[in-house]
Amino acid sequence: MKATLFVDGVGYAAPGLRTAVALQEHFDGAPFEVEETWTAMPACLARRQALRLSDTTRLAIMAAEAVGPLLPRDCSWIFASSTGEGGTLNEILLALRADPIMIQPLRFQNAVHNAAQGNWSIAAGAKGGMTSVAAYDATAGAGLLKATMQALMDDCPVGLVVFDAPLPPPLHEKRPLELSMAAAFALSPQRGENSLAALDLDVVADETATDPSLSGAHRSLTDSGNPVRFLLPLLRQIFWPKGETVTLDLPGKLALTVTPLSVGDA
């Protein structure tokens, strides 16, 4: 499969790097410190409404709202997360151990893997299709592949959000993610007036994924264990396209190669 998509916008959210602009400045040498007490707080939600949602869902929405205005309301969205609502799941599991068992119905509603995209569709008034993707450490590649297929099939722009947040104990011991991170992309099969870069994509066999440390990002990002870290080299290439190929793992013995190009070279 070979395809070309255009990146019309990017979003990013992490403790200490709250926007794609902050991430770009960090790539360019600006230091940053992880904000230990940081809580994702989307601008599109009232604070009281936001606090009813989990940290993971707020993180995803915060990234999504950065690219939402660049996309039509009826476009499709892909939300990719390796763990989904781990925090809410943990609360339910702890409640099941208690006597008596007391679980708020809202917990079940927010425990599903597609909770983030459901809440985003309400907040944004989005009317297009919503797809939820999970593929463990290959989640970033699987999400981008699904977004590519959706954009080509619909011949329409698509939104992609890749996100994960640390799990509470004891789940953290089984899946240690040290840092919350979310990245979002406004992708289109057609070049736009303000497109940032073009992406040449291909599915290949037996390729080694690009080491995220090659992005030059701070070690707290690349050593976080968060699958979103595999997108850091791609994000840097989108900011400064040089035609260097980034390889993302896919499930099985496949990989997705992505070569960002300047729009004029596409």
UniProtKB/TrEMBL annotation:
Q: Which SUPFAM superfamilies match?
A: Thiolase-like
Domain (Beta-ketoacyl synthase-like N-terminal) spans 37-231
Any GO molecular function: acyltransferase activity
| Protein name in UniProt | Beta-ketoacyl synthase chain length factor
- Species assigned in the record: Thermohalobaculum xanthum
